[in-house]
Amino acid sequence: MRIKNWDIFAFIAGYHLLLFALLPAFIGVFTWKAIVLCVITWAISGFSITAGYHRLFSHKTYKASPFYEWVALLSSSLAIQASALQWSNDHRIHHSHVDTDKDPYCIKKGFFYAHVGWLFTYKVPIDERLVSDLMNNPRVMFQHKYYGWVTLAVNLLVFGVGCLFMHPLASFVGGVLLRVFAIHHCTWFINSLAHVWGSRTYAKEQTAADNAIIALLTFGEGYHNFHHAIAHDYRNGIRWYHFDPSKWLIWTCSKLGLVKDLKWVSNIRLQQTLVNKDKEMILDHISREFDEKATEIRNKINELSELYHEKSQTLAKKLREMKVATAERRKQLEHDIKELKQELGELWKSWGDLTKFAAVQYSIAH
Prior knowledge:
It is built from 15 helices and 2 strands. By secondary structure, it is mostly helical.
């Protein structure tokens, strides 16, 4: 690995060495206040990356007020992960070229490379066409232009506040070094661990995986396979039991009027998207197979996908009709909608069984 970004390498290697060198002394001045300061600043920096850098600036899954954007941009300085403009540029390239040589943190180049090594070797100028929307945002550009000074000021402020309640060494180690160490590795887990460990329910062709344990460490970002399948949804965890505090934060802020226009995909639309993706992937994979079993799978794939889309379109039509229906008509529509949802549920189960069977028969990543 040939290092190109010596400044980044020196910073990351330097704070790791400094942290471990100071730990013995830190134990001597240890106080739980230092851990509290670490956890609070870690959480603030984590939310600023997930809800701010990732879901707002990179993917535009919702719109935010200037006040909300300022909070996200300033608090993100606690994470020390470059400006929102640079971060979003790299992340959009990642989604456009995931698992290829153009992917900034491609997992196929190795776990260490995806986790942190890419930061030392990846050096590509910002693509102004790719982030033109962010370049028209004065708050984003202010942060980008003065990122070093803003980051220094915010972290000195945290250190100074900590010194009011504890020994300066405890404030520095707990409020700065430990926090940066924790937020860096938790964020990096998304690029590394979340591409090797977990289930691939939504985008079987990608390395991105869903993992509830990773979600606990990353403020809900662990449902990574869903995210790569439906990147424009403001949620990562779409089930009620999915741990996704970033989703809850964004939703709460929408009720307070701080953000609006939250983008999300209904279960039916999600399943339609997945049926299309599965169909394309499987048919492409077995296009050169001409045995009887492959022919049967192709026929069933086409038949089931057409039936699913037909039923889902009918459901969508009846749901639209429901909004303007008379009371008498609503009763019939409610009955029809209930039946259609049951039929779609059965078709979805059949689709899952069929795609799993095809995956096993022809060694398709599932």
